[in-house]
Amino acid sequence: MLRLTASIGIAGAILSVASGCTWQQAYFSAQGWQRNACYRVPDESERARCLSNANMSYDDYRHKSEGPKRD
Asked: 53 in a domain, yes or no?
């Protein structure tokens, strides 16, 4: 269920970017979708982990997604 919601969020982000929004705006939009999905997770520890990821700042997300820099 969470993967489906994440996929929907990613698709929404792609559509937002294609329509002229910035990557950061798309990230914030997808973050809202993910946060809503987290609140539907019945297990409290899984919900907390989900919300932790959903509340990650855009800068932290970019740093994490880029991985280690190569020279």
From this structure: yes
